[in-house]
Amino acid sequence: METEAVVTQILENVIGVRNLSSDARFLDIGGNSLNLVEVLKQIKEKTGVSPKPRMFFEKSRSTIAAISAAIDSQREESRAVLSVAE
User: Fold this and answer.
1) Helix 64-85 with 33-47: angle, nearest 10 deg
2) Is 50 within 8 Å of 70 (Cβ atoms)?
3) CA torsion 12→52→2→10, rounded to 10°?
4) Which residues share a beta bridge with 25?
5) Which of 1, 22, 72 is nearest to 11 (CA)?
6) Which of 5, 17, 26, 46 could form a disulfide linkage to 56, CB 3.0–4.6 angstroms apart?
7) What is the mean pLDDT of the chain?
């Protein structure tokens, strides 16, 4: 499943909203520090990546698209490190 779809599904389930667009911002859809804990846990379980919590609160980085891109970037960096280590 595409990262953006995974993040959207997690946010919809945890926050209880539906039909989110890729430009939806975490705080604008009802996200807060309490539900962020569950969001981060589920993202780690489903993607293997632990995004930085602060990105969910920064206006320029808190959209579903930006969070998904950061997760993909972290995943690629991890793969590159593993490749070099081998």
Assistant:
1) 40
2) no
3) -20
4) 63
5) 22
6) 26
7) 91
Q: Indicate the SS3 state at residue 63.
A: strand
State pLDDT tens for residues 46-67.
999 999 999 999 988 899 999 9
pTM over 0.90: no
Q: Sort 4 into a burial class: Cβ within 10 Å, 0-12 / 13-18 / 19+.
A: middle
DSSP-based helix, strand, coil % in the chain, nearest 5 = 65, 0, 30
> Using CA atoms, how far apart are residues 72 and 1, in angstroms rounded to an integer?
12
Q: What percent of the chain has pLDDT over 90?
A: 79
Distance CA 79, CA 83 (A): 6
Note whether 7 and 67 are within 8 A (CB): yes
* Cβ neighbours around 68 below 10 Å, total: 21
